[in-house]
Amino acid sequence: MTTVDITILSWDRLEDTKAAIASALTQTGVELRVIVVDQGSKPESLNQLRAFCRQYPNVDLVCNVNNLGVPGGRNQAAFQGNGDYIVALDNDAEFIDERQIANAVEIMERQRDLAAIGFRILRFGTRCEDLSSWSYTQNAHEWGEKPFYTTHFVGAGHMIRRSVFDQVNGYDDSLFFLQEEAELSRKLINCGYKIRYSPEVVIGHKVAAERRVNWNGPRWRFHVRNRFYMDVKFRTPFASLCLGTMLTLYKGFRAGLILDSTIGFMQGLGMLPQAIASWKLPGVASTPASKAYIASCSQNKGVSRWSRIRHRFKKAGVAPGQQAAESK
């Protein structure tokens, strides 16, 4: 029987975390192991979580004193297991029924050139797309129920083929927060694999605004830092790197995030040696095939370079956190 490791990161929100674990345990048709990594919950919540997890022999709980960040926590959870596939489920999400993981495995087994699939993410208890989790260029209302190839998956719910995950050494945990899915996806694609948005697999997401990091602070700082680091790591052409960095800083300055933009950029510069050293790591170098795949997924096919540049300038005029909502 196919083995699957379902990984869940927890940080307080005890009842939601327990519900996510319970939802994972209902999945049928595969051999399951649930791995929970706690990122520093309050002692009283952590004690209750320990007691809950002890009831189930196939649930492992790892407790961190300090928050390792999203990529660090996911790596820790994934490397605790050895299943054929790795599933990540947000601790405020649940599968809509007991067949969802089996559906995901069926897709991955049928198409061996898939490295990862992203699940359909609905607002919990509804049939409406969770727009806060939709980061694809396609319109969510038009494409939410349609499968398509893409250049990344969404973190709230996805499945990764372990053999490829191990091949590229998982996530880059230095990102800590933001762009971790894009970074891993790029490495998977560079290894010759595809990524598919798969609405056949559905989860409900309890959107928790109070637990999301505000754009007017550390979130924007991480965005600026990680964007620059990723551009260097994946050898974005110098002119495009400069233009992208300039537009990112312009957007931050225009929104009044001058200090956060500056700090994020300086932190990105500080990561230059690490970014350059990573050029030799598995999955970092692009290939003609990976470039062709990325181009095939682009919504800019047939659009002139000048039009693309104008569109980037237009996006730079939108305040942080608003662009995604306006594009949906």
From TrEMBL:
What Gene3D superfamilies does UniProt report for this protein, alphabetically?
Spore Coat Polysaccharide Biosynthesis Protein SpsA, Chain A
Q: Which family does it belong to?
A: Belongs to the glycosyltransferase 2 family.
Q: From what organism does this protein derive?
A: Hahella chejuensis (strain KCTC 2396)
Top-level taxonomic group: Bacteria
Protein name in UniProt: Predicted glycosyltransferase
Keywords from the named record: Glycosyltransferase, Transferase
State the Gene Ontology terms under molecular function: glycosyltransferase activity
Record has Mitochondrion as a keyword: no
Q: Which residues form the Glycosyltransferase 2-like domain?
A: 12-167
Q: Which InterPro entries match?
A: Glyco_trans_2-like, Nucleotide-diphossugar_trans
Q: Does the keyword Transferase apply?
A: yes
